[in-house]
Amino acid sequence: MATGLLYDERYLNHDTGFGHPECPQRISSIVLHLQKLPIYSTFKHLKPKQIELDWILTTHTADYIKRAQDTCKNNSQILDTPDVVVSKDSFEIAKLACGGALRLADELIKGNISNGFAILRPPGHHAEANRAMGFCLFNNIAILARYLQEQHGVNKIVILDWDVHHGNGTQHTFYEDPSVFYMSLHQYPFYPGTGSVLETGEGRGIGTTLNYPMSLGASDKDYKEAFIKKIIPAIKNYKPDIVLISAGFDAHKDDPLANINLSTECFKWMTERIAETAGEVCNGRIISLLEGGYNLEVLPLCVEEHLKVLSNYKR
Ligand SMILES: [Zn+2]
Questions:
Q1: Which one of 14, 60, 125, 126 is the catalytic residue?
Q2: Domain boundaries defined on the chain
Q3: Torsion angle, alpha carbons of 172, 179, 230, 281, to 10
Q4: Whose CA is closest to 105, among 184, 6, 247?
Q5: Is 152 considered catalytic here?
Q6: What spacing in Å lies between the alpha carbon of 295 and ligand 1's midpoint?
Q7: Closest CA to 6 of 121, 109, 84, 151
Q8: Percent of residues, the chain, with pLDDT higher than 90
Q9: By CB neighbour count within 10 A (0-12 exposed, 13-18 middle, 19+ buried), where does 276 fall?
Q10: Which class is domain 2-312?
Q11: Is the peptide bond before 189 cis (omega within 30 degrees of 0)?
Q12: pLDDT tens digits, residue range 13-41?
């Protein structure tokens, strides 16, 4: 079966204004690059589904959803925090980003794809239940996890977040929930401030949050050590039914927003380790969603490596 590749040109219509790092060119540069590669024709190309607000309500409050909708409709530009710049279409586009994630879930569960990646924006992992944050409106990966459980009866889910920023919104969504194991590697201390090694979950969720903070200047070696010593053993021990990846590429050494020094090759290596592990524990089931990544030259190259590995490990 093929690797699913989800994209929609409407994702370009979320207008964040001049000079904003989370710009439409991020994803158009990825697609333009991928289209030149022979592998591009081997993907199963997918479009997002239109979703009901009920799915967004699995993760966000009704008050927040209404505020997001009104802010976009009124063209008020700033939603909750100054870095979340929105335009008239942003609410619908953010819904469509969730719809992209859910389409991959449907295709994977139906057996139409082995694994899949979504080139989408706005990103999601900073979005909290009741507010927008860090360029994120709706928490795409959290909504995806809830959808897999409620719509498709999937039990245990790992969310691996290697975006350079800690995914505060995702962590908080599942902090007391042992059915979703959130694990993150991120620069620390850094934006958004959460993600200390002491944050391990609460109540029934104790032990299903794993933070691996990285110091400024951390390298491939540090990430590889984290994978070998902590991340991979934790996934094998937990035995999820699917692995979801919050795939940000802003830990790359050339990324302008952070100070971690990963090579492009390291993203290939990390994807290989996850694909191998998913092959052992969950029949290779992986859905990966784009989060950050702000260097327009290296972002497409990182995504290429990520996709080549997913494609190599398809079943
Ligand atoms: Zn990030």
A1: 126
A2: 2-312
A3: -150
A4: 6
A5: no
A6: 12
A7: 121
A8: 99
A9: middle
A10: alpha beta
A11: yes
A12: 999 999 999 999 999 999 999 999 999 99
Alpha carbon 191 to chain centroid distance? 17
Instruction: Please report which confidence band the pLDDT of residue 123 belongs to, taking 50, 70 and 90 as the band edges.
Output: very high
Burial of 28 (0-12, 13-18, 19+ CB in 10 A): middle
| pLDDT score, position 314 | 86
From ligand 1's centre to the CA of 241, what distance in Å? Answer: 26
Distance (Å) from CA 293 to ligand 1 centroid:
7
Phi-psi region of 135 (alpha: psi -120 to 50; beta: other; left: phi over 0): left
Mean pLDDT of the chain: 98
Tokens (6 digits) for 35: 């289209």
pLDDT at 236: 98
Q: What number is the average pLDDT over the span 174-186?
A: 99
Which pLDDT score is estimated for 310?
Answer: 98
CA-to-CA dists, residue 205 to 96, 177, 231, 251, 265, angstroms: 30, 5, 17, 28, 34
CA-nearest of 49, 81, 83, 47 to 67 is: 81
Q: Collapse the DSSP code of 46 into the 3-class scheme (helix H, G, I; strand E, B; otherwise coil) and give the result.
A: strand
| Span 155-169, pLDDT tens digits | 999 999 999 999 999
Whole-angstrom distance, CA of residue 265 vs CA of residue 263 = 5
**CB 102, CB 83: distance < 8 Å:** no
pLDDT at 315: 84
Q: What is the whole-number distance in angstroms between the Cα of residue 311 and the centre of ligand 1?
A: 25
- Looking at residue 191, its pLDDT comes to 98
* Ligand 1 geometric centre to CA of 292 (Å): 4
